[in-house]
Specification:
The chain is an alpha/beta fold. The strands form two sheets. It has a three-stranded parallel beta sheet with strand order 3-4-5, with helices on one face. Strands 1-2 form a two-stranded parallel sheet. α2 packs parallel to α4. The radius of gyration is 16 Å and the shape is globular. The chain starts with a strand and ends in a 9-residue tail after the last strand.
Length: 154
């Protein structure tokens, strides 16, 4: 399942995946910063066994350059979107006692010149560690990925 706010982006990714790997993909043009979209996705894909959180539009800049409105908008996707996706899909997987969740939070968690990005990614690293501490009791695996560049190339 592919999810993006932009239908054209996910359709292009789907075309590339299906042509290169002969693999079926379903597309969902949803904004995951809105928890209602997360609910729609969970209702459409309750059989999901692997959740990969990898989204974000966090601007570069320090605390003086990124105003509160922008900060909240980007955290709704990057932080709360991940939390809501994990909450919904891990509950479905825990009911089956099977599944994995992966969270990508770039190494910018340690790049202190990017206040919004480093704070959001540090939050996600702590969130992932906390989830991973309790996941085994539900038959789940939680993995955190911290690439130097957080970009999926299809």
């Amino acid at each position: 399942m592919l999810v993006s706010r932009t239908a054209a982006d996910i359709e292009a990714a789907k075309a590339k995946i299906t042509s290169q790997y002969n693999f079926a993909a379903r597309c969902f043009p949803l904004d995951l910063s809105d928890s209602k979209s997360v609910d729609i996705l969970a209702a459409e894909c309750p059989e999901t066994d692997l959740l990969v959180n990898n989204a974000g539009a966090i601007p570069r800049g320090n605390i003086a350059k990124v105003d509160e409105a922008r900060w909240r908008t980007v955290w709704d996707l990057k932080v709360f979107g991940y939390v809501n996706m994990t909450r919904r899909f891990c509950a479905l997987m825990a009911a089956r006692k099977k599944g994995s969740s992966s969270t990508s939070s770039a190494l910018s968690a340690k790049a202190y010149s990017r206040t919004t990005g480093s704070s959001g990614n540090a939050s996600l690293m702590a969130f992932t560690r906390a989830m991973g501490g309790t996941a085994p009791r539900d038959g789940l695996r939680v993995v955190g990925i911290n690439p130097a560049r957080s970009r999926v190339i299809v």
